[in-house]
Request: fold
Amino acid sequence: MIQLISFKNCQVADRKGSLLFQPEWGIYDMAVGEKIRSVFAGAADKEKFNVLPPKSEEIAIEINFSKEKMRLFKLYQQVQDMRNTRSIDLDILNDIEKKLSSTYPEEWLLYLEILEHIRDLPEASNLLRICMDRLEKLKRQSEKHRGLITDGLRLVG
Reply:
């Protein structure tokens, strides 16, 4: 049976003397029980006691990417490097587009990445047209990616 005991004009402190409750805060309610029906293993205040979660016994699944996928990742990295250095190389972007169209016919996200880089460059109008045409074709072919491509084009502007 659980009882609730209320105290007026009550001050509560821990063993070190830190105040936990002061009389001006109102009535102090203390719950009291005759039996412990369940327990929780661990600290009630994990931040205070710096408790770490238990070590998982699960093993991470190792992913082995194909050589083709690794080459695609390198193309993404080239575009990312241009973003990081803020240096656009149209020759490299044209080469990437050629590799995309010949080797990765369903790849759409990297086209959006390229568009983001060249959208304001007048000298890239041919590459811009190629990327837009490719994305429009991919929108028609893939119902799965249609919304993503549309949203991406909207974001690129």
User: Anything to note?
Assistant: Residues 2-37 form one domain. Residues 60 and 107 are 28 Å apart (CA to CA). The chain has two domains: 2-37, 67-156.
